[in-house]
Amino acid sequence: MKLKKHLLAIAVTAVALAAPGAAFAQNKVNLGVAIPAATHSFTAGIVWWANEAKKELEKANPDLKVTIKTAANAGEQANQLQDLATANKINALVIFPFESAALTKPVAQVKGKGVYVTVVDRGLTDTSAQDAYVSGDNTAFGKVPAEYIAKTLDGKGNIVALRGIATTLDNERMDAFNGVMKAYPDIKLLDAKYANWNRDDAFKVMQDYLTRFKQIDAVWAADDDMAIGVLKAIEQAKRDDIKIVFGGAGAKGMIKTLIDAKDPRIQANVSYSPKFIYDAIKMTAEARLKGEALPATTIIPSVLITKDNAKEFYFPDSPF
Amino acid sequence: MSIAVRFDGIVKEFGPVRVLHGVSFDLAPGRVYGLLGENGAGKSTLMKILSGYERPTGGTLHIDGEPRSFKSSRDAEAAGIVLIHQEFNLAEDLTITQNIFLGHERKRGWWLDEAAMRADTLRVLRQVGLDKDPDTPVRHLIVAEKQLVEIAKALARNARLLIMDEPTASLTPGETEALFTLMARLQADGVTIVYISHKLDEVERTTDDVIVMRDGRFVTRQPTRELTRHQMATLMVGREISDLYPDKDPAPTGAVPLLRVEGLTVPGWAADIAFDVKPGEILGFAGLVGAGRTELFEGLLGLRPHQVGRIELEGRAIRIRNPRDAVDQGITYLSEDRKGKGLHVGFGLRENLTLMALETYATPWLKPGAETRALKTAVQDFGIRTGSLDVKAASLSGGNQQKLALAKVLHPEPKVVILDEPTRGVDVGAKRDIYFLIQRLAREGRGVVVVSSELMELVGLCHRVAVMRGGRLRAMVDAQHLTEEELISHATGTNQRDQANGDKPSEEESMTAGR
Amino acid sequence: MVDRQLDQPAPPRFQRARSLGSRLHAVGPILGLVLLCVAGTLLNPDFASLDNAMNVLTRTAFIGIIAVGMCFVIISGGIDLSVGSMAALIAGMVILLMNTLAGSIDQPVLVVAIGMAASVVLGGVFGLAHGLLITRGRIEPFIVTLGTLGIFRAYLTYFSNGGAITLDDTLSDVYSPVYYTSVIGVPIPVWVFLIVAVAGALILNRTAYGRYVQAIGSNEQVARYAAVNVDRIKVMTYALLGACVGIATLLYVPRLGSSSPTTGLLWELEAIAAVIVGGTALKGGSGSIIGTVIGAVLLSVISNILNLTSVISVYLNAAVQGFVIIIVAFLQRRK
Ligand SMILES: Nc1ncnc2c1ncn2[C@@H]1O[C@H](COP(=O)(O)OP(=O)(O)OP(=O)(O)O)[C@@H](O)[C@H]1O
Ligand SMILES: [Mg+2]
C-alpha cells in the first residue's frame, strides 16, 4: 500500500505544519459523510469505500461516530446537510458535492454552525465555505496517458480521444492531455467526442471513428467504462491498426486485464480511485480526534499503473 | 339594436365537395326565422358562415347593408352575431362559469373578476331555467343541461342576432317552454333569431317566417302562418310525405320474453326497476330529463356501478359486466350523447360502422374491402348523405351522424337493441325512415327499446311505454291507453291513479338530490 | 343522393392543394431523413458506405424495437417512461440468471437460449404489471411508469452493487454472434427490427386489436360504449411494449455482455421522440409504425453524422439534434 503510506505522510506533515504543538487530548467526533448515491460504478466505489472507512475507524476509535448519507441529486444532498447539522448534530463533515455551485451555500451554512468541513473531489465555488479540500489529480489524469501514449508511439501516429460529460473536471483532463501532446507535433489527435462515461455511447462513437479514420494507432478512452465500449467496437470492425487503448481510473476489471495480460492493447492505466473518499474520511476523523486541522488542499496523485504495480490498485471486493 | 343580414350568392366547398350552391336571401331585423331543411341540406354550414366559424368559398355577406367577412367567431360576436352550436362546444373540465366566459373573461386589473362572472352566470342560468351551481364542472352535467349552458353562454354575449341550431333536440317539454318564453322576450328586445329545428310543431309555434333549404340551395321563404306542417315537410323533402309512423302491428303475445330485467338499481339514478321485452315488441321509455332512463340502461350494460337481481335473455339467466358481454349476448345500446359516447368523430365512417362487430371482419386480418362494402350498404340502407366515403365522421351533418350511429349499433345484428333518442336531430324524412326501420327490426323478431323525450314518437311507435319519474318506474302504459296526456301525467306525477297509490311527486326531489 | 354529389365536377384547384398538403404531412419524416442523408454524404463520403449504414441500423434496432411497442402505447393514449430502466434491469437479471445456470447446465447454447426467452418473458411480465396498475389500480400511466422507472433502476443498482453485471466469458462467446453476425449481409438485430416493425404495422392496421387501440386513444368513452374491452386492450398494449423491450434487451446483452446502472439511460425519451417525430400524436388516437421506424433511424443518423464530422463544435451536438427534430416536426405538422 505504497499510495496509502504516501498519503499519510502528506497528511501527517500537513497536520504538523497546520497545528504545531496542539494538545493530544482525544475529542469526541461526530462525523457526517455526504456522498452521491451509487448510480454508476465510480459512485458505487465511493459508497463502498466510505462504508469501509466507517467500519475501520469506528472500530478503532470509540469516540468516533460516522453517519453516511447518499443523495441522488444536489437538492437532496442539500437537505441531508441540514439534517446532519440539526438532527445528527455532527461536528465534522466530509462531503463529495453533487455540484460545486449549488452546494456552496448549504455547506457554508453547516460550517457557520461550527462544523469542520472537508470537501472532496469537486471544489466549492467559494473556498471560504470549506476548511479543507481533498481531491483527485485531474491534471495528471490527462497528463499520464498523454505521456505514456506519446512515448509508446515514439512520438508519431494518429490518435482519437473520448470525453466524458462536459464539466470542468473533463476540461482539466483534456487540457492536460493536449498540453503534453503539443510537444509531439507528429502525433495527430484526429478528434475528441463526448461519450458520457458510458459504455454504449463509447461503442457508438468508436464505431463512427472507425468508419471515418482508416488508420488509428491509439485510443485515449479516458475512462475504463468507455474503454470497454471502445474494445467491443474495434473487435466488431476487426481492425488491427490500434495498438493502445488507454482507459482511466483503474476499475477492477481493467486492472485484472492488466495483471493477467489478457489484451495486448491494454498495457497501462492511470489511477483515480474512489478510495480518496476513504482517505479523506480517515484524515479528517483522525485529525479532529486530536483537535487538529488539515492542510487547506490535499491532492491525491494520479499515477501510472502498469503490470509492475497493478496489484497495489486491485481491490476485488470493491464494486469499482 | 337589431341587425339585418343579406346572403348574396354564398358558395361553400369542402375540398372537392360543394355543399352550398350560391345561397341568396335576407333576414329582416327583429324577426324570428325558422330555418328548415333535410339533414345535410347545409343549414348549419350557412349559419357557421354567418357567425364566423367558416369562411365562404364564394359570395358575399352583407350586415346592415355593408359587405362583411368575418375572420373568426370573435369578429362576428363583436358584430352581435352569436351561434349556439348543434354539437356542443363546451370544455368538459371547466366549470359552467368558466365555459360561459371562455375567451371573454371579465377582468379587474390583471386578475379575473370571479365574483362578477359568477353573478352574471347565475343571472343567465336563471333566464334559461337551469338550477345548477355555476361552479359545477360541465363534465358532470347531463346532455339537456349542457344544452341549456350553451344557450346561457349565448345570452351572456348580448347577441343582436341569435342563431339556435336545434336547441331543443335534447330538451324536455318544460325546458322547451322556458326557452320559448325566453325567445319571445328576446324578440321583444329587438333581437333577430334564426331557429333551426326538425320539430315542425315548434317551428310553427315560435317563428314568423319559414326559410327552406334543400341540397345546398335556397328554396323558399314564406310566412309561417300560411303553411301547414305537412306543407313544410313537403317543401323540405321536395316530395310528398305520407304517414310519418308505420301502422302498428298487434302487440306480440309470446310467452317467453326476449329480455327480462328484475331489481335493477343504479345508485343515485334508478331504484329497483323491472321490465321485459317480448320478441317483436317495441317498448318505449318515457320520462322527464333526469328521470334516470339513460342511466338505467347504462347501468344495465355495466357502464355505471349498479346492482341487479336477475337478467334473463330468452329465458336463461345471463350476466352483463360490460358492453362487450352485452354484445356477445346480442344486446346493443345507442347512446343519446352522439359526440361524447356514440361516434369517434375523428375516425372514418368505415371504422365507426364496424367497431362493434369488428371480430367478424378479423380472421385474423381485417378486410378493408369487406368493411367498405358494409359501409356502402349502410349508406344505402340508412340514407347517410355524404360527399365521399372517405371522410371523417365529424364532417357529416348532425342528422347523418345520427344515422351512422344507428347503423353502428345495429351492425352486430343484435337480438335486443336499446335506442336512446334515436331520432335526435334527424329530419322528418329520415325520421320516418327510422320509424319504419324500427318496425322492420321488430318484425324480424328482435326486441326494441326506445328511450325518447318526444312523446309523440313513443305514442306513434310503441306497443307499451314505461314511464319513469325520480328514478322509479311509475307506470307501464299499454297500447289502448297510449296518449301524450297519459304519459305526461305519469311523468310529472299528476296522474290521479298514481297519487291514489300514495306516490307523492315530492319523492322526485329526494332522488335527484342524490346525484 | 350520394351519386349526385360524387358527380359534381370537382374544382381542380382544390384537389391539388389538398393532396399536396396531406402528402407532405405523410412524407415529412422521409423527406427529413433523405435530406439528412444527403447532408451526411456531402460532409463525409464514408457516411454512404454499406458498413456505416449497417452500423447505424444496428444501433437503431434497440430503440426502434422499443419505439414500435411505444407507438401502440402512445396511440392508445398512454405513455411508458420506464422502458430504459426496464431494459437495464432485464439485462441485469438475465445476465445473473445465465451466469447462475452456467454452473449447473454445461451447454452454453441452452443457457443462452433460456436467457433470451427469459428476457422476453420478463418484459411481458413487467408490462403486464404496468397495465394492471393502470387499469385495475386506476393510476395515471405517467405516474405508474415514473414510479417503475425509479424502481427498476434501483433494483439493478442493488443487484450490481452499483457496478456492472457482466456476462460469463464462455457464455459471452456463445451469445455475442446474436449481435455481431450478419445474415445475407445484414446484421441480425436489423432483421429482428424489420420483423418487429412489419408485425407491428400489420397488428396496428390489420387486426381488430389494432383498431381497438386506436379507438381507445381517439375517445375512450366511445370505445367503451362500443363494447370495446378497454381495460383488456390497454393491459395487452403495455404487455406488448414490455415484450418489445425484452426483445430489444436480448439483442443488447450480447453487444457489451454487461449491464450497469447507466445502461439504457434516457432510452424512454429516445423511443418517445422516435414515435412522435414519426408523426404520431402524443395525445393518441392515430399513428404510424412506418413513421416510427423512420423517426428512430432519423434520430440515430443525426448523431452518426455528428460523429463523422468535426465541422460542428462538440459542445453544440445536442443543439443540432434539437434543431433537426424541430424541423422534421415542422415538415410533418398537421393542418
Ligand atoms: N368539414 C366538412 N368537411 C366536409 N364536408 C362537410 C364538412 N362540414 C359539413 N360538410 C358537409 O356539408 C353538408 C351540409 O352539412 P350541414 O352540417 O350544413 O347540414 P345541416 O343542414 O345542418 O344538416 P342537419 O340537419 O343534419 O344538421 C353535409 O353533406 C356535410 O357532410
Ligand atoms: Mg346541422
TrEMBL record, chain B:
<keyword id="KW-0813">Transport</keyword>
<dbReference type="GO" id="GO:0005524">
    <property type="term" value="F:ATP binding"/>
</dbReference>
<feature type="domain" description="ABC transporter">
    <location>
        <begin position="5"/>
        <end position="240"/>
    </location>
</feature>
<dbReference type="InterPro" id="IPR050107">
    <property type="entry name" value="ABC_carbohydrate_import_ATPase"/>
</dbReference>
<keyword id="KW-0677">Repeat</keyword>
<keyword id="KW-0547">Nucleotide-binding</keyword>
<dbReference type="InterPro" id="IPR003593">
    <property type="entry name" value="AAA+_ATPase"/>
</dbReference>
<keyword id="KW-0067">ATP-binding</keyword>
<keyword id="KW-0472">Membrane</keyword>
<feature type="domain" description="ABC transporter">
    <location>
        <begin position="253"/>
        <end position="495"/>
    </location>
</feature>
<keyword id="KW-0762">Sugar transport</keyword>
<dbReference type="GO" id="GO:0016887">
    <property type="term" value="F:ATP hydrolysis activity"/>
</dbReference>
<dbReference type="Pfam" id="PF00005">
    <property type="entry name" value="ABC_tran"/>
</dbReference>
<protein>
    <submittedName>
        <fullName>ABC transporter ATP-binding protein</fullName>
    </submittedName>
</protein>
<dbReference type="InterPro" id="IPR003439">
    <property type="entry name" value="ABC_transporter-like_ATP-bd"/>
</dbReference>
<feature type="region of interest" description="Disordered">
    <location>
        <begin position="486"/>
        <end position="515"/>
    </location>
</feature>
<dbReference type="InterPro" id="IPR027417">
    <property type="entry name" value="P-loop_NTPase"/>
</dbReference>
<dbReference type="GO" id="GO:0005886">
    <property type="term" value="C:plasma membrane"/>
</dbReference>
<keyword id="KW-1278">Translocase</keyword>
<dbReference type="InterPro" id="IPR017871">
    <property type="entry name" value="ABC_transporter-like_CS"/>
</dbReference>
<keyword id="KW-1003">Cell membrane</keyword>
From TrEMBL, chain C:
<dbReference type="GO" id="GO:0005886">
    <property type="term" value="C:plasma membrane"/>
</dbReference>
<dbReference type="InterPro" id="IPR001851">
    <property type="entry name" value="ABC_transp_permease"/>
</dbReference>
<feature type="transmembrane region" description="Helical">
    <location>
        <begin position="141"/>
        <end position="159"/>
    </location>
</feature>
<keyword id="KW-1133">Transmembrane helix</keyword>
<feature type="transmembrane region" description="Helical">
    <location>
        <begin position="111"/>
        <end position="134"/>
    </location>
</feature>
<keyword id="KW-0472">Membrane</keyword>
<dbReference type="Pfam" id="PF02653">
    <property type="entry name" value="BPD_transp_2"/>
</dbReference>
<keyword id="KW-1003">Cell membrane</keyword>
<feature type="transmembrane region" description="Helical">
    <location>
        <begin position="289"/>
        <end position="306"/>
    </location>
</feature>
<feature type="transmembrane region" description="Helical">
    <location>
        <begin position="179"/>
        <end position="204"/>
    </location>
</feature>
<keyword id="KW-0812">Transmembrane</keyword>
<feature type="transmembrane region" description="Helical">
    <location>
        <begin position="56"/>
        <end position="75"/>
    </location>
</feature>
<dbReference type="GO" id="GO:0022857">
    <property type="term" value="F:transmembrane transporter activity"/>
</dbReference>
<feature type="transmembrane region" description="Helical">
    <location>
        <begin position="312"/>
        <end position="331"/>
    </location>
</feature>
<feature type="transmembrane region" description="Helical">
    <location>
        <begin position="24"/>
        <end position="44"/>
    </location>
</feature>
<protein>
    <submittedName>
        <fullName>ABC transporter permease</fullName>
    </submittedName>
</protein>
<feature type="transmembrane region" description="Helical">
    <location>
        <begin position="87"/>
        <end position="105"/>
    </location>
</feature>
<feature type="transmembrane region" description="Helical">
    <location>
        <begin position="235"/>
        <end position="253"/>
    </location>
</feature>
